[in-house]
Specification:
Blueprint lengths: L1 H5 L3 H27 L4 H17 L3 H29 L15
Amino acid sequence: MEWLNEYHLSGIAIGICTFLIIGLFHPIVVKAEYYWGTRCWWAFLVSGMAGIMGSMLVDDILFSSLLGVFSFSSFWTIKELFEQRERVRKGWFPMNPKRKHEYE
């Protein structure tokens, strides 16, 4: 990926990929809360910690930055899972009928 540095495009590439990673996490939050509720928060904690470790081990600045964005998006998802539960309670998102007892 030397050509990104040669043409000074690394920042733009990081920005575009950050936008895509954050955008990908929104439907993940909705689906995770629908199927598993807030019980799956630990999976995002583990993936976030793995992303931080990967970010520290990778030499390439582009991939290291994207692993950092991924890891902190995973951490943010933990908060969003609990907020998504409240949005479901308010009726803004569909409730999983198999888990209806969790919302009462």
